[in-house]
Amino acid sequence: DIVMTQSPLSLPVTPGEPASMSCRSSESLLHSNGYNYLDWYLQKPGQSPQLLIYLASNRASGVPDRFSGSGSGTDFTLKISRVEPEDVGVYFCMQGLQTPTFGPGTRVEIK
Amino acid sequence: QVQLVQSGAEVKTPGSSMKVACKASGGTFSNYSINWVRQAPGQGLEWVGGFIPIFGTTNYAQKFQDRFTVTTDRSTGTAYMGLSSLRSEDTAVYYCARGAFTYGPRYYDLDVWGPGTTVTISS
Fold first, then answer.
1. Nearest-CA distance A92 → chain B (Å)
2. Between chains, do B109 and A51 touch, taking CB under 8 Å as contact?
3. Which of A42, A66, A109, B68 is packed most tightly, with the most Cβ within 10 A?
C-alpha cells in the first residue's frame, strides 16, 4: 500500500494570515495520463469530510479560492491564503492512484 | 444537488455481520464510484472498499479481504455495504461517498459524502 504522511500534525493559525501544510506519499502519485491522484479533504468538527482539492490542484465546486493545492510526484502542499475562522478542522490528503489511503491529518486550530 | 442518505446507527455483537445502506437522493450512482470510508472513535479516515456500477466491480482494502461486500438495488438507487465477522475494532462511523473513476485509477475525487452511520460492536 502507498503510505501517506502529513506535516505538521497540528497547525495553530491566526485569522487573516496564510497557512500551509504538506502531504507526502511513499510512491509517486503521477499517472501516465499526466494527473497526480491526490485529493485534499477537510473534516470540520462534528461533520462529514468534504472535498477541497482533487487531482492535486483542482478546487472542488464551491470551495473558496483562498484554498489552493500544488505539487507532483510524492510531495504536495495545501495552502490557505488567508485563514478564516470556519477553516478549523482536520485536513486529510488521500491518494487514489492505487487502493486509496489517507494521511493521518493536520489539525488546524485558531491561536 | 445529489445527497447521500445512510441508514441508522447499529449495535452488533462480535462475530456477527452488518449491512449499511446508502441511497442517492436527487441523483444516481450510475456514472460514479461508490466508496465506503470509516472513522474509528478519535481516529483518522480509512478507505474500506468501493464499487463501480458501470464496471460491476468491487474493490476493498486488503485488510478487509473476505469480509467486505457491496450489493445494490437499482430500483431504489441504494447501495449496501456488508462487513462480516465483526470485531471490536470495527466500531466506527461508516461513511459512503460518491467518487470519480477511470479505467486506471478507480477511486478518487470523493465529492459527495453521506452523514455517516455509527456502528458499535459490543458483547
1. 8
2. yes
3. A42
